[in-house]
Write a structure and sequence with these properties.
Structural class: mainly beta
Order of helices and strands: EEEEEEHEEEEE
Number of helices: 1
Number of strands: 11
Strand content: over 45%
C-alpha cells in the first residue's frame, strides 16, 4: 500500500497497488478510497493480460453519502474493457457459466438505504447497462426479529429489449432468513 500525502504531511488517501492472477489473467491495478468532506469517494483501475496475449482494462468510480437521518445514497460508474458495446457480441455462455460477471462495457449503478426504525431497514439498488439500456432494480425490506436474526423480503426486476443483458433473466421475488452466530 502507498499513502498519498498532502504537502502538509496529512494523509489524503491510501492507494492500494494490486498484482494477482484471476482465472487465466494476470491482473495489475490501483485502488483508492478517500473522503471529500463527509462524502466517500473511491476509484479502481485494473489492467488484465490473458495467457493468450489479449488484454483489457476495467475502471470504477464511486461515491456515497450518509445523511444524519440514516438515509445513505451512493452511485458508481463502471467500465468493463472486456465487454462489448454491441449486444449481438455479448458472451452470454461465459456469463451463465460464471466465468465473467458482466457482458457490456459501460454501467451505472445507484443505491439508497434507509433505517425506517431500529428494527426495519429499506434498501434499493439500480444497475443500468448504458450500452443496451437494460436495467436491474432491486428493492428490499429487512426486519430484525431478534438481535441476531433478520428476515428480508425483496424483488429483482429486470427490464430490457431483445438481446439485451438483463432481458435474458427473469424477475425474482425472495425471502431471506439470516441467523448470525
Amino acid at each position: 500500500m502507498i499513502r498519498a500525502r498532502h504537502c502538509s504531511g496529512t494523509t489524503i488517501a491510501p492507494v492500494w497497488i494490486i498484482r494477482s492472477w484471476l482465472g487465466d489473467s494476470r491482473v495489475s491495478g490501483l485502488d483508492i478510497a478517500t473522503q471529500l468532506g463527509t462524502a466517500g469517494l473511491r476509484a479502481e483501475l485494473t489492467h488484465a493480460r490473458r495467457e493468450d496475449g489479449t488484454h483489457y482494462e476495467r475502471a470504477l468510480l464511486g461515491t456515497d453519502y450518509a445523511f444524519a437521518n440514516t438515509l445513505t445514497l451512493g452511485g458508481e460508474l463502471y467500465f468493463n474493457g472486456a465487454g462489448s458495446s454491441d449486444r449481438s457480441a455479448y458472451d452470454f455462455p461465459s456469463l451463465f457459466a460464471g466465468r465473467i460477471h458482466s457482458v457490456a462495457r459501460r454501467y451505472a449503478g445507484a443505491y439508497a438505504r434507509y433505517e425506517v426504525s431500529p428494527l426495519v431497514d429499506w434498501a434499493t439498488y439500480l444497475v443500468l447497462n448504458l450500452d443496451d439500456r437494460s436495467s436491474f432494480f432491486s428493492p428490499s425490506l429487512s426486519y430484525s426479529l431478534a438481535p441476531n436474526v433478520d428476515l428480508t423480503i425483496g424483488a429483482q426486476w429486470l427490464q430490457g429489449g431483445t438481446g439485451s443483458e438483463f432481458a435474458q433473466l427473469h424477475d425474482t421475488y425472495y425471502a431471506q432468513f439470516q441467523w448470525f452466530f
